[in-house]
Amino acid sequence: MNSAPLKNDLLLRALLREPTPRTPVWIMRQAGRYLPEYRETRARAGSFITLMSTPELACEVSLQPVNRFALDAAILFSDILTIPAAMGLGLHFVEGEGPSFERPVRDAAAVTKLGVPDPEQDLLYVLDAVRLIRSELAGRVPLIGFTGSPWTLACYMVEGGASKEFAHIKSMLYAEPARLHQLLALLARSIALYLNAQIAAGAQALMLFDTWGGVLTGSAYREFSLHYMSTIVGQLKRESEGRRVPVILFTKGGGAWLESMGQSGADALGIDWTQDLGEARRRVGGQVALQGNLDPAALHAPPARIREEVKKVLDSFGKGSGHVFNLGHGITPGVKLEHAAAMIAAVHELSPAYHR
Hints:
Elements: H1 10-15, H2 36-45, H3 48-53, H4 55-68, E1 74-75, H5 82-86, E2 91-94, E3 98-101, H6 108-113, H7 119-122, H8 124-137, E4 143-148, H9 150-159, H10 167-175, H11 177-201, E5 205-210, H12 218-235, E6 239-240, E7 243-244, E8 247-251, H13 258-262, E9 268-270, H14 277-284, E10 289-294, H15 303-317, E11 323-327, H16 337-350
Parallel strand pairs: 1-4, 4-5, 5-8, 8-9, 9-10, 10-11
Antiparallel strand pairs: 2-3, 6-7
Helix pairs in contact: 2-4, 4-8, 9-11, 10-11, 11-12, 14-15, 15-16
């Protein structure tokens, strides 16, 4: 790991609600298909799994967005499903359909058979990528590590891939809750080990992606998703290289439960585009920083309109520290480069006024 002094620590300071001269900005899925250089590297790799599991290629695509744009963070290029893949479930990606598992986890025997992966053995390719990215960044911006939440990983593992109905896992939730808790507890242990290994390898902030928490009822969300994310946060190493390692918790569709999420122990909450940022700020009462929350579809508008929408987000959060500008979900493949650049430039230009 390269321990070069961090030249730009705006993201880390904002996540800890410390004063910053402007609002930091990064983009979920910033290393992705909207970038021509990403598409070239992906073609050279031959498959998504080769791309994410080859440290040199993962490093290359992690650096592409920060080389092109004035972003305030790099994020590890990986996938949320690395842990279930390391559990031997046969992960593969179907073009146009997303991830799929050859061996879904749908009964007691399948759950019992699962073990906790050893990050330094079973997930070494990810940690090697973290170490390489940190070295190549040489202190330019901080590096964010991540994984999926236990509930989200369980959704893919039990369904066998992406789902609209979540029939298998919701059947387990209501008919065999103890079985689902057994699976989620195992995933929480695995994730805590994995994220701590990412910190040891050089990750300077962490993000838990709870992509499917929003499909639950309020009580089920607290029992089957938030409880396990809070458990993970409580097990993380919160200091490295002499400074705090902030944790961002993001539940897509979780706006109804912000107060509970604010009690999770995370330093920041990701907010999707369906929520008013100012109202979210009032509801969490200064307990946590907020990240978000421009509608990703706004990036299809002309640059002048994008600038207006950026201002609306900044106005919504209001003055003071504790805001990281981002989209409310990942950037989509069809976004034009000049539109992404227009959003970033607008944050740089407009946000200082909110920090005076």
